[in-house]
């Protein structure tokens, strides 16, 4: 899929599935066969629907992968899915040089695009942030998605900076927008949405609440195990069937409440940011357990993330089958 086709794919409305990276218990070794099985499931379950695969993103614990593991993860997804679904791999680093290396790895492996989170650790000026993405966009012939995530980067790309890049570079194909401030999100869509598609980066609930603003789709960790639900949600938003969209949140709420409740048992998040940043820090672990329970390959998280204990796995099992309505994919 070339850059123009990828941008059009985003503009029509799509769900980016940020794929989990399965690690084995208890040694946390990479489970490439599990990743392969999960990718095959997504291809079969979505029938080529409006899905984009994103290996090695935040949900894929990219920060815990060595360079060699990163290549193995991306290559596995490319081997299984190339030509069947678009692939936009995470390719991020704290500095520009390290980011460029991962962009090059991903491009050489055959992805359709890369998703690049805002640089983290050091806080750049707006000009430094612009030049960071300018160099990335000029270095590659594939599509680039800006991951505008203040949660993990403690910085934010304002609409004026997005506008400069979107109007200068055709291979900027989307912006994954993670601000929890609705007015800021709307400003981003108003200023730039006609030039580059803006995606809701905070998942299903936030998509349901903001689809009417002109969002072109959303980024989903839950599509790892219920892509049909996520595609249905997307279509209600695209077709402006907002009451149906919001009613789907009732089905999702027990699962969301379970994730929020875990902070009472496993301890508070160490973030200094206010809610909603602090409420969902156990979600990656919950997603992996969910996948194990329905017959996919979730596996362990890697430290410093922590796994659920057996009591909570049993509680989750009741929620996903009795309340969320999931079915076993395989034993």
Short description:
49% of the residues lie in helices and 11% in strands. With 331 residues, it is α/β, with parallel strands linked by helices. Helix 2 (32-46) packs parallel to helix 3 (67-81) and helix 13 (283-294) packs across helix 14 (310-323).
List keywords for this structure.
331 residues, alpha/beta, TIM Barrel, 5-stranded parallel β-sheet, 3-stranded parallel β-sheet, 14 helices, globular
SSE topology:
Elements: H1 3-12, E1 14-18, H2 32-46, E2 51-54, H3 67-81, E3 88-90, H4 96-109, E4 113-117, H5 126-139, E5 143-148, H6 150-153, H7 159-168, E6 172-177, H8 182-192, E7 198-200, H9 204-210, E8 217-220, H10 227-238, H11 242-261, H12 263-266, H13 283-294, H14 310-323
Helix pairs in contact: 2-3, 3-4, 4-5, 5-7, 7-8, 9-11, 10-11, 11-14, 13-14
Describe this structure in words.
Helix content is 49%, strand content 11%. It has 14 helices and eight strands. The protein has helices at residues 3-12, 32-46, 67-81, 96-109, 126-139, 150-153, 159-168, 182-192, 204-210, 227-238, 242-261, 263-266, 283-294, 310-323, and strands spanning 14-18, 51-54, 88-90, 113-117, 143-148, 172-177, 198-200, 217-220. The protein has a five-stranded parallel sheet. Helix 5 (126-139) packs parallel to helix 7 (159-168). The longest helix has 20 residues, at 242-261. The two termini are 35 Å apart.
């Amino acid at each position: 899929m070339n850059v123009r086709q990828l941008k059009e794919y985003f503009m029509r409305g799509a769900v980016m599935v940020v794929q989990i990276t399965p690690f084995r218990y208890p040694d946390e070794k990479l489970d490439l066969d599990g990743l392969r099985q999960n990718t095959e499931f997504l291809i079969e379950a979505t029938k080529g629907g409006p899905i984009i695969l994103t290996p090695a993103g935040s949900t894929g614990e990219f920060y815990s992968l060595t360079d060699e593991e990163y290549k193995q993860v991306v290559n596995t997804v490319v081997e299984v899915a190339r030509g069947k679904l678009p692939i936009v791999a995470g390719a991020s680093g704290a500095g520009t040089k390290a980011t460029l290396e991962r962009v090059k790895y991903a491009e050489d492996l055959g992805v359709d695009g890369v998703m690049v989170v805002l640089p983290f650790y050091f806080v750049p000026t707006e000009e430094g942030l612009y030049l960071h993405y300018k160099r990335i966009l000029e270095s590659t012939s594939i599509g680039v998605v800006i991951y505008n995530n203040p949660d993990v980067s403690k910085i934010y790309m304002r609409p004026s900076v997005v506008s400069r890049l979107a109007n200068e570079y055709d291979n900027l194909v989307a912006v994954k927008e993670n601000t929890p401030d609705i007015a800021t999100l709307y400003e981003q869509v108003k200023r730039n949405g006609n030039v580059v598609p803006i995606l809701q980066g905070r998942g299903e609930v936030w998509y349901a609440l903001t689809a009417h603003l002109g969002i072109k789709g959303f980024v989903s960790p839950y599509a790892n195990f219920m892509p049909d639900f996520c595609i249905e949600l997307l279509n209600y938003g695209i077709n402006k069937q907002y009451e149906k969209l919001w009613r789907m949140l009732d089905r999702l709420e027990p699962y969301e409440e379970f994730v929020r409740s875990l902070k009472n048992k496993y301890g508070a998040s160490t973030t200094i940011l206010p809610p909603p940043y602090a409420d969902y820090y156990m979600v990656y672990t919950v997603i992996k357990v969910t996948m194990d329970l329905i017959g996919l390959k979730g596996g362990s998280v890697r430290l410093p993330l922590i796994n659920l204990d057996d009591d909570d796995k049993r509680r989750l099992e009741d929620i996903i089958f009795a309340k969320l309505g999931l079915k076993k994919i395989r034993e």
